[in-house]
Amino acid sequence: MRHRTVLTAGALTGALALAGCSGSGGEADRAALSVSSSYMPQPVSADMAAGFLTITNEGGARDELTSVTSDAAGQVTMHSTVGGAMAEKSSFDIPAHGRLVFRSGGNHLMFEGLKRAPKQGQTVTVKLTFAQSGPLTVEMPVKSATYNPSTGH
Ligand code: CU
Q1: 49 C-alpha to center of ligand 1: Å?
Q2: How many angstroms does the Cα of residue 132 sit away from the middle of ligand 1?
Q3: What is the CATH number of the domain that holds 74?
Q4: Does some domain include residue 1?
Q5: pTM of the entire structure?
Q6: How many domains does the structure of the chain reveal?
Q7: Averaged pLDDT, groups of 10, the chain, 153 residues long
Q8: Which of 52, 63, 73, 127 has the fewest CB atoms within 10 Å, counting from its CB?
Q9: 152 in a domain, yes or no?
Q10: What whole-number distance in Å separates Cα of residue 80 and Cα of residue 89?
């Protein structure tokens, strides 16, 4: 009798896990990341530029952006802006079913030691590395120095 109860519980757990998986497209227990709205305002400085993008996680597990690199810069650092002051961070959390947003006035990427001056109309290749998911490569378009994503120019 006791043995039979254990078997039933095991079968039930398996069925629930399967249902959870198919119900969310198989992404229930891992992150599913995509990048949108990326751009770099054409830098006014010869050796430093900012970059912005949005990382969307459609998966059921959190992830973490742990580093950013670019062929156009010696180093890319990640910054948050809190109360008008910016602070370098070594990682950014990406919540399950959530977004990580880098935008003007908030979180931003800083490209330091530029190897060439990015000009409007060009793209800069940016590689994003995560704690759990595989890396993503983004072709970040260079926009005008005063580009505003909400107006598109
Ligand atoms: Cu900064």
Answers
A1: 10
A2: 25
A3: 2.60.40.1890
A4: no
A5: 0.81
A6: 1
A7: 47 47 61 98 94 98 98 97 93 98 96 96 98 98 96 91
A8: 127
A9: no
A10: 7
